[in-house]
Amino acid sequence: MQWDEGPYFQSRRLAIYKEYAEKLVAQGKAFYDTDTEGRKAIRFRMQDGITELNDLIRGTITFDTSLIEDFVILKADGFPAYNFACTVDDADMGITHIIRGDDHISNTPKQIALYNALGFKIPEFAHIPMILGEDGSRLSKRHGATSVTEYRDKGYLPQALVNFLALLGWSPGNDQEILSIQEMIEKFTLKRVNKTSAQFNTTKLDWMNGQYIKNTPVEQLTPEVRRFFEKSDIDITGISSEWLTNLIQLYHERFKTFQDLLNQTRFFFVDIPEYDRAAGEKFLQKEGMTDLLREVYSAVLSVEDFNKEKLEDSLRALTVKTGVGFSKLAQPIRVAITGKSVSAGLFETMELLGKEKTLKRLDYTIKNLSEKQKAIKIEKAGEACSQD
């Protein structure tokens, strides 16, 4: 829905509420109620009887109004109570349909009584099911982010969040899950709103956001990613839009949120990455690995035009020279320059990382491997001496 007027503030409409409340008092439909401190509020006289509501989603709902006590409509401080304010506002502004959560059903008989007492036309009511958390309980802050800005800060696209929320309790009826706002407008009908509560499934939201990311041109994602990275305290000073676009392109099929992208590419933005211990033990701590990485260092150093094609040519030539299969060479290089055993394409990663950083990380790994192997040899020698 698009707004075409407002916003309105109840604090600026106090005179309107007072006028209607006093009108009800004059008609005997409401009365002043003085508390122990002498402050006067106005209460509405609730008439006993049966009130029927033809809810657009739930059908006929019946209320016994004899169970509802007289209730305050205007508080002693001059501010209206909720049920009175929304009734006056909706009638005064020509609201024809009230669509809200089913936790408001209990308010409806009071509001209908006020509509009748004030001579207002009763609008149509549609009470939609509440959204539940993934554990089946009512959605609350403990289930995670609860505001639009929090989802933005977590790296979700606005159009994906709108799409996801639109399908909580409603569907267009043809199993279609990715819809533009225009399609939602064209296909929405209250008849297809579910009567049962929908669950807020973060996994589904992640999937949907991933679909929107994949279907959004990389150039459009670049400014959004830059803003997200900057807010995440990533120093991208001096990084060109072209470089950032190339990074997003490289990972375009791999991330579902901007936070995913940051987690996968953080190693690009640090001097020396944090090394995964398991990856290091599996791929780096092997006999002869230091010498092999020295060969890699020399091969990379010799590449003058530092791009993925030249890097691949140089390193594949090295596999021929050393007799080591490329898969056995690629993983140690990957861990050495990224700190992880999983990344995007190796040659593309090296190109984006740049020659200086690539060589620096290879050198760092070689020196640390050498020191570790020396320590192991000393430890083994000490064990041998103790046995003697």
Describe this structure as you would to a colleague.
The protein is mostly helical and 388 residues long. The protein folds into 3 domains: 10-128, Rossmann fold (3-Layer(aba) Sandwich); 142-268, Glutamyl-trna Synthetase, Domain 2 (Glutamyl-tRNA Synthetase, domain 2); 273-383, Arc Repressor Mutant, subunit A (Orthogonal Bundle). The protein is built from 16 helices and 9 strands. Helix 2 packs across helix 3 (108-118). It is elongated. Mean pLDDT is 91; it is low at 375-382.
Write the layout of secondary structure elements.
Blueprint: H1 14-26, E1 30-34, E2 40-44, E3 50-55, E4 59-64, E5 71-74, H2 82-92, E6 97-101, H3 108-118, E7 124-128, E8 131-132, H4 148-153, H5 158-166, H6 181-187, E9 198-199, H7 202-214, H8 218-231, H9 241-251, H10 258-265, H11 277-283, H12 289-301, H13 308-322, H14 326-338, H15 346-353, H16 355-387
Helix pairs in contact: 2-3, 5-7, 8-9, 12-13, 12-16, 13-15, 14-16
What's this, in brief?
This protein is mainly alpha-helical and 388 residues long. The chain is built from 16 helices and nine strands. A three-stranded antiparallel beta sheet has the order 1-2-5. The chain has a two-stranded antiparallel sheet with strand order 3-4.
